[in-house]
Amino acid sequence: MGRHREFDMEKVLDAALCVFWRKGYEGASYADLTEAAGVERPALYSAFGNKEALFRRALDRYSERYLDYLPEALKLPTSRQVAAHILYNAVDLNTRFPNHTGCLGINGAVAGSDETEPVRQALIDFRAAGQAQLHERFERAKAEGDLPETVNTEALAAFVMAMTHGMAVQAKAGFSRDMLNAVADQALSTWPAKSS
Amino acid sequence: MGRHREFDMEKVLDAALCVFWRKGYEGASYADLTEAAGVERPALYSAFGNKEALFRRALDRYSERYLDYLPEALKLPTSRQVAAHILYNAVDLNTRFPNHTGCLGINGAVAGSDETEPVRQALIDFRAAGQAQLHERFERAKAEGDLPETVNTEALAAFVMAMTHGMAVQAKAGFSRDMLNAVADQALSTWPAKSS
DNA sequence: CCAATTTCATAATGATCGTTATTAAACCAC
DNA sequence: GTGGTTTAATAACGATCATTATGAAATTGG
What we know:
Helix content of chain A: over 70%
Radius of gyration of chain A: 19 Å
Oligomer: homodimer
Distance between the termini of chain A: 72 Å
Strand content of chain A: under 5%
Structural class of chain A: mainly alpha
Number of helices of chain A: 10
CATH architecture of the largest domain in chain A: Orthogonal Bundle
Number of strands of chain A: 0
Largest interface: A-B, 52 and 52 residues
CATH topology of the largest domain in chain A: Tetracycline Repressor, domain 2
CATH class of the largest domain in chain A: Mainly Alpha
Order of helices and strands of chain A: HHHHHHHHHH
C-alpha cells in the first residue's frame, strides 16, 4: 500500500550519471542533480540514499550501459585486437557526448578533499578491476604464444589503461575524436611482436 | 612605512602548492591552505588575491620548481631521448612525494563545478603549452631526419602527453615507481623507427 | 614622539554545501 | 469511505564554503 513513485528511477539515475560524468563527484551538487533529474531532493535521498551511494549506483550503471566494449574486447583472438578494441572504443565513448566528454572513471575524482576519499578509492578500485581483467587476458595471450615470453603483461595492461586515462583527460580538454584516434594509432603502432 | 610582512611568501606559496597538488583546486579549502601555510586567511588574500589567483601562482611555481626537466628534455639530441627524458622524469616527479603524488596539472582539475571552469581551462592551456613545445621539437626532429617523414608529429606529441597524464592518474592511485617506469618502458618501445 | 600606514588576528559575512523535518497528497487494504 | 502507509513538495537544518569588516599591533617618516 501507499503512494506510488511518480518518477522512473532509471531515468533519474541516468540523469545523475550525466551530471557526475560532466562535473565529477565533488563538483556535482544536489542543485545540479535535482535539476537534471527533474526530481526534488528528498526523492533522491529516499530512492538512492546519500550522495556517495548515488554516485556508486551511477558508476555501476556506467559500467553496464557504456563499458560493454571491455568484455567484448577480452573475447577477441589476439592481444593486439583486444588493445585496439579498447582504445578505439574508449576514444569513441570519450568524444561521443559533447555534454559529458571524457570518462566517469577519471572525471569522477582524481584528487579531492578528504571527504571524497571513499569515492576516490572506489574509482581506483573500479579502474584496477579493468586493468586486472586486461592483465589476465594478456597472461593468457602469453600462454597461447600470442605475446612473447619476455613481455611484462602487468606493465602492458597498465600501459593500455594509462593510454585510456590520458586520452580521457585529453577528451575532457576538448581534443577531437580524430586526434585521439591518431593517439591510439600511435599507442598501437609497434605492439610487441613475437620476435624470432 | 607600515608594518612588515612576517611570513615568507615563497614558503607560503610552496605550502599552498602542496595542498593543491594533493587535493586539487576544488578540494582544497582555505582551512587546508591556512593550516598548511601557517598564516591566517586575510594574509593569503592580501598577499595573493583570491583562491583562483593563488592557484595560478602555485601553478607558475610548480612549473619553475618541478618542471625544469621539460626544457632539459627539448635540448636532447634525438626525439626518442626527448620522450624518454620526459616520461622517466614525470614518473619520478609523480612518485617522489608521498604526500602529493601525481601531477598538479592533472590533480588540479579534470572535471568540476561550473565555478571552477576558469581554473580547469587554465590547466588545459598549461598542458597544451607543454604539448606545443613537444610538437615543435618533433617537427624539428622530422626536419633533421631523426623522425620519419610519415610520422604525425602532433599525434606523437599528444601520445607522449597522454602517457604522462595517464601515469599521473596511476601515480595518484598509488602505483609504484617501478610499475610506472615499466609503463614508460612500454610506451617507448612503441617508438617509431626510421624504417629503411 | 606623533601621525600615517601597513600587517596582523579575530570574527563575521552571505552563499551554498549535503542532509532532513514537516506537512500535504496519493494510494491500498479493509 | 476510512485508516494506515508511502511518496511528494516546501522549507529548514547545521556545517562549511570563499571572502572581508574590524580593530589592535607594529613600523617608518616627519
